Amino acid sequence: MTAEGCVLAADVFSVCLTHALSTEREEIMGLLIGELDKRSVVHISALVILQRSDKTPDRCEISPEQLTDAAMYADSLQQKLKRPMRVLGWYHSHPHITVWPSHVDVRTQADYQMMDPCFVGVIFSVFNIDKQTQESQVQVTCFQSVTNLQGAHEYMRREVPFFVQKRSTFEPHNLQSLSSMPQVLLTEETLAYKSTIPTEKDEKNLVTQLYNASVYSASVCHVMDTMIGPLMSSLTNRLTENKESTKKLIEEKKRLQEQIDAINKANTDGS
User: Fold this and answer.
1) Parallel/antiparallel/unpaired status of strands 5-9 and 41-49
2) Residue-wise pLDDT tens digits, 7-45
3) Spatial CB neighbours of 25, under 8 Å, sequence gap ≥ 6
4) Do 87 and 55 contact (CB within 8 A), yes or no?
């Protein structure tokens, strides 16, 4: 059995894309949570943003501990939402390179499909410049791995039909994932900096320590500039819009209630 399609909720897509655009130097990654319908179509409605232990420009790995934590989170969502929820995919970014999965991605995907044959992989290609328009473009693909007939242990990409389901609002759990993203990025930078701090046994080089501290400061400023500021602005604007919508709905409810009261009164007088 293989996945016949993948439907990504719009708010999940937005969080994944925001995560992918958070850095153009290294790949980011996360896990996708959802349910499987009778047609073997994967419906993704939640995600888990993963903290990278090793930041590289062309490689990302998910530890067994992270998979376990994501499975526990899926169980908690299942109890809260009262519908089947499980880890059904992973996503990562390809900054400055094509959207197509590498041989490492295909091999990694094959490993995940051993746990669940409908497990899918989603790749966001970001920070690529269109040669004709000279504009930055974003490409997305969804794939699975299939055995290459030329070798029993060779795998190749199988493209999975991919759709984004329109949704006008953010689910609370996805809004929480979005708001937690800056903290995840800051934790990554802090852990990377702490790993460079020499112990008492190590040789202390003042110039190296100053350089590492300046890199850490620049990284923190980058997160604040590109993530925290815009995110705060976006959430503030969304809050303002929600308050205006709530006010209009209250007024509409009041108007409809007055009409209902008038109709009821007319019926009472007529009887």
Assistant:
1) parallel
2) 999 999 999 999 998 888 889 999 999 999 999 999 999
3) 55, 57, 95
4) no
d(CA 54, CA 66): 14
What residues pair up with 140 in beta bridges, in sequence order? 124
**Residues 142, 47: Cα–Cα separation, whole Å:** 15
| pLDDT value of position 71 | 92
pLDDT surpasses 70 at 54: no
Sheet containing strand 29-36, edge to edge, reads 155-159, 136-147, 120-129, 86-95, 29-36, 41-49, 5-9, 162-165
Asked whether 59 and 88 are in contact (CB, 8 A), the reply is no
Task: Note the pLDDT tens digit of each residue in 220-270.
Answer: 888 888 778 877 887 888 788 889 989 999 999 999 999 999 888 888 876
* Per-residue H/E/C for the chain: CCCCEEEEEHHHHHHHHHHHCCCCCCCCEEEEEEEECCCCEEEEEEEEECCCCCCECCECCCCHHHHHHHHHHHHHHHHHHCCCCEEEEEEEEEECCCCCCCHHHHHHHHHHHHHCCCCEEEEEEEEEECCCCCCEEEEEEEEEEEECCCCCCCEEEEECCEEEECCCCCCHHHHHHHHHHHHHHHHHHHHHHHCCCCCCCCCCCHHHHHHHHHHHHHHHHHHHHHHHHHHHHHHHHHHHHHHHHHHHHHHHHHHHHHHHHHHHHHHHHHC
Q: Alpha-carbon distance 61 to 51, whole Å?
A: 10
pTM confidence score = 0.82
